[in-house]
């Protein structure tokens, strides 16, 4: 499928040719563990990557492959890999970059689970984390670079405050230091932002959120383009010969870069982490995420419009101390949003609740429509007190550094009618602040 098609065509069609699948119109679910190898010669060609094809569904599967190719097409990448969750996408990316020892440079403005994994698991695996002093100041990234920094990780729209980093400036600093920029683009989705256009080298998604869009399915995606030079001496794992990748008939071991020059990063995740650690996306879950992708832009357009209405309502509510969303009054990310997110800054944002702890509890238990739980990007609207739940792994100081004071409430706006959602907020505020 040519990438000249517009986004809305690619999201329905890319990566799938019905002629290769018994002319099935919808993408079939290949619910099989393994695939016939044919004959021993073909088996050898397949297992040494002299011929590309499916062998075993832990490593690749035709339904999952359609999702991989579709997301790569939507981001204009050369390849992608789908995994069982967004966390698998984050952790396999960091391992693939810095295995054997190295540092990742990032900011406290990360999903709580990502931040916690960086503190709890990676140092024990020889991968240490540096946090920039000032996440809004690109030069802070330059100052925090160290000899063994292997990459910079940022979120294009942060959780929960919808802050926006200067992606292009940070990409330049990464490249000046011969390391890639990794952008977790979960909140933006490929519809609102293509980080490759601004210099990102690897894009990560939790497909669990707005891409899947219906709160039914966990999934993660890693997308790459072919621009970064993995042979610059900092990443020996891409340059060392791999026994399995032997050339036929000579038997010479080849490197990942030699065999997969256009997709070295995701090929290595597949050959190493997916093969040995698992975390595959099931074909059925890939199918559900593909269903979600088919309506991505329609859903996001409505969610952004509703978010704008709800932000205006909250800005004019005397029980609200602040609203953190780029279009909100005096928001410092307005210009960055205009540059990077011209279609809107997503549907997840936060606000400050002006009551005491009891009133906050009453507020959270008074909704008729907003569901109180930890997901985002669902078709249903969601509310949560981030400091106590999604970011509970951070201590009070880390929460303040990440801009999440105790009064923070996060909303994820779904597909219900915006006026009904505003009425639901209004009655929850009224109940929370009722006298007696
Ligand atoms: C920005 C971001 N990245 C990654 C993740 C992890 O995704 P998953 O829950 O699919 O493992 C989340 C989850 O909330 C997230 O918000």
What does this protein look like?
There is one protein chain. With 436 residues, the protein is α/β, with parallel strands linked by helices. It has two domains: 7-292, Type I PLP-dependent aspartate aminotransferase-like (Major domain) (Aspartate Aminotransferase, domain 2, 3-Layer(aba) Sandwich); 296-432, Alpha-Beta Complex (Aspartate Aminotransferase, domain 1). Helices cover 37% and strands 15% of the residues. It has 17 helices and 14 strands. It has helices spanning 7-13, 40-47, 62-75, 86-98, 112-120, 138-144, 167-176, 189-192, 236-239, 256-259, 264-277, 283-293, 296-315, 334-340, 357-364, 396-401, 418-432; strands at residues 79-83, 102-106, 127-131, 149-155, 181-184, 202-206, 220-224, 242-246, 253-254, 320-324, 348-353, 371-372, 382-384, 408-412. The strands form three sheets. A seven-stranded mixed sheet has the order 1-7-6-5-4-2-3, with helices on both faces. A five-stranded mixed sheet has the order 10-11-14-13-12, covered by helices on one side. The protein has a two-stranded antiparallel ribbon with strand order 8-9. α5 links the parallel β2 (102-106) and β3. The longest helix has 20 residues, at 296-315. The N and C termini lie far apart (64 Å). The mean pLDDT is 96. The site of pyridoxal-5'-phosphate has 15 residues, from α4 and α5.
